[in-house]
Amino acid sequence: MKLEIVAVTPEHEADWRRLYRGYMAFYKRPEDESVLDRLWGWLHDPTHEMEGLVAVLDGRVVGLAHVRRMPSPIRAADVGFLDDLFIDPDARGTRVGEAILERLRDVATERGWPFIRWITADDNYRARTLYDRVAKKTAWNLYEMSAGAV
To answer: How far is 107 from 78, CA to CA, in rounded Å?
Structure first.
């Protein structure tokens, strides 16, 4: 079994789209090609913060991650933020997610980020089992306020 975690490239597009559709379905988001198109564009725009990785297991793309730099004002330093992590259901249990997170740990070290943070759904138990193994859960609560009039 050969597993590589690499930067997403144009040759990964079809597999990346397949996986991201699975990610959107998991979070019950409507499938929208314009979202996929815009995100794919961001991943290949050197001026955009968003970066993508894919996990290639025995020549097949089975996972993806999207990460970006995030300023932390209280630290006056940049940290990493993992926006998306998704593993093909057929490849779960093969430690692909753990390998992606380890690669992201290396990215953080290379860039001088003291840590990478992320959020996940409270009921995402399978992923949380992995996260509890490799990271520390914080005590923060997440809020979201819509734009426009209150």
So the answer is: 13
